[in-house]
Amino acid sequence: MPLPPELGKVIDDAVTADAHDLITLSANLHANPELRFEEVKAAAWICELVASRNIAVEKGLGGMPTALRARAGTPGGPRVAILAEYDALPEIGHACGHNLIAAGAVGAFLAAARVVAQTGGEVVLLGTPAEEGGGGKIKLIEAGAFDGLDAAMMFHPLDRDLLAHAALASLWLMFEFHGVPSHAAAAPHIGASALTACMDTFRLVDGQRVHFQDGVRVHGFITNGGQAVNIIPERAACELSVRARDVQELARVKAIVERCARGAAMASGVELKMTARPGYKDMRNNLTMARVFGAHLAAGGRTAKETDPHTGAGSTDMGDVSHVVPSIHPYLAIVGEGQAMCHEHRFAAAAASDEGTKTALAAAKAMARTAIELLGSPALREAIRAEWSSR
Ligand SMILES: [Zn+2]
Question: Do residues 80 and 149 lie in contact, with contact meaning Cβ atoms separated by under 8 Å?
Fold first, then answer.
């Protein structure tokens, strides 16, 4: 059963009525950027706004003081979660627009909370810290915060509207090389250069790129290049980020990159210590749900493409969520196409613009409508679950 038009109107009006508070929230977050796990003010402001509507908020989840959860409706039936991110980046601030993600999610939750009694079920606002490298959602999955959910959703700012764009599976590799120091001019023949092994690792990886599947990314930098210009480097180290379209290809490429590091160490006769840090899983977009979101977005006057092969993909811990519960992570434009990309100064400016807040409000309406339609339609939940199970 599609969403009754009168419910859609109540939702839209609720977001419009909350617009002033949501825009203030977004502006406060943007003016006070906080790094992963340190989103103290952001979490407090979100709690304050939700609590002002007489809805209780739990603060601190999964061992993270800045995670939060609020619920509306009746437990025991269908449940849908709307996710807020609110961490910023070092130096460049809210250049990923997570302030708008927070405002959109809170707006969607408050609007859905007003009508959830009419469909039954429960709508949950989850505040998920540390998307930028901390994997807050993974900690919340481990803490059981996603158990018993029928669906999870969030939106992310971009330079175009895309309903179901890819996000890459990722991990980090750290290589430390230990060689033999010697005088670089007087006795280079008795040394063994850790730096040569480090640089050879990059060269060998470049040679293997021909064997990578489409979408693979391997990029890195040297974190330790030696000790002094006149010493054959005893220690050198590098860090590489490896990404792929799925976890199988990620594991395959990881093994190749590690082989390159071992080969480089062997060639230089130095020792190698390898450390891997897990990143995020690929995003399994639920197309059934993404299309419902797209229809509600269109009702508000925005038509979005499903995906765009010419737009690059990053990685997000929403990918991990999509592996445990049917999920969507649509992208919505806050700036003209090609005018700015996430993690740029221009994008940080766009995250504070009128265009940005307009997009957050549009996202709030479309997410609340999608959540309520889903709670009111067993057939839609069934179709979403069937698509998810078949992946
Ligand atoms: Zn982001």
Answer: yes
- What are 293-332's pLDDT values in tens digits? 999 999 999 999 999 988 999 999 999 999 999 999 999 9
Angle of the 5-31 helix axis to the 354-376 helix axis, nearest 10: 140
Nearest to residue 92, comparing CAs of 35, 135, 170? 35
* Cα of 37 from ligand 1 centre, angstroms: 15
Cα of 237 from ligand 1 centre, angstroms = 28
Local structure of residue 306 (DSSP, 8 states): S
- Ion ligand 1 nearby residues (CB, 5 A): 96
User: 197 CA to middle of ligand 1, Å?
Assistant: 34
Amino acid identity for residue 165 in this structure:
H
Model pLDDT for residues 122-154, shown as the tens digit of each residue: 999 999 999 998 999 999 999 999 999 999 999
CA of 132 to the centre of ligand 1 (A): 7
φ/ψ of residue 235, rounded to 5? -125, 140
Question: How far is C-alpha 380 from the geometric centre of its chain's CA atoms?
Answer: 26
Question: Which residues lie below 8 Å from residue 118, measured CB to CB, with a gap of 6+?
Answer: 7, 376
Cα 165 to Cα 312: distance, rounded to the nearest angstrom: 9
Q: How many residues does the chain have?
A: 391
For strands 235-244 and 169-178, give the pairing.
antiparallel
Task: Please give the structure tokens belonging to residue 314.
Answer: 């990053």
Radius of gyration of the chain (CA): 23
Query: How many separate helices (H) and strands (E) can be counted in the chain?
Result: 11, 12
Contacts of 71 (CB under 8 A, 6+ apart): 55, 56, 122, 123, 124, 125
Distance in angstroms (rounded) separating the CA atoms of residues 350 and 121: 36
Record the pTM: 0.92
